[in-house]
User: What shape does this take?
Amino acid sequence: MKTNKIKTAGMIALLVAVIITIAIFGFSCVGGMAPIGWSGGAVSGDMLFVGSLEGRLVSVNMTDQSILRADMLQLPQQSGLFGCSAVSGCAGGTSRVSIYSTPAVSGDLVYVAGYNGKIYAYKSSNLAQRWIFPREGYLQAFVGGMVITDNKLIIGCSDGNVYSLDATTGDLLYQYKTEDKIWGTPTVDGDTVYIGSFDKNLYALNVADLSLKWKFTSEGSIIAKPLVVNGTIYIGSFDRNLYALNAADGTLKWKFMAQNWFWSQPVLVGDTL
Assistant: This one.
């Protein structure tokens, strides 16, 4: 029985990997556009949502493999910007926008943040657009993913701000300014959101209003997603250290020095990190 479960899980993982590959690469190189940008996938029920290389949110039904695509994200054309392709500018003086941020799903909405500095909400059933933030203009690039909690969408931006939006309407609720850009994805545990910044700090903020609880300063930029388990935060830094911190106050429990930078979230299996 256990072997069958493992095989089933393996087949599901393989199917998801294949579908993500089709979704990302199957629609790139359209109209001569250079394939740039990447996105992780989000699964809700039998639906997979992923950002494609051409700058679209794509939904894939994992049962029948039917595919829907949202409108392409765009930005007023500017040559030479990392993450924006001006190889084949769209009509009207716009460029295709990359999606690095992994989509998030909550209720009947799916959310994606673009490198053009906008966040989009779509109906998950048909990818009809529900709202855009900001309504006018653009922020700086979104690279990391987002988290949805208590009907709040929380995300970090390259402008150094952590933003909290009403997940239903897209209205800005709160923001917190760090001292450098943010490329990491936040983690929520209870009433606290944890997020790293290029300013070398890990921040613990109140989910309710993004007020600061504490911050921990490392010797390098932090873009990895924090892992929180049983009151301990595990976070890697560009200073090559993996830190274990007390979640309550950010005090150091221990650290481990590796041979290179930490880019990704740690994984804890049993007592092995």
User: Anything to note?
Assistant: Residues 2-25 form the longest helix (24 residues). The chain has one domain: 2-214. The chain has one helix and 23 strands.
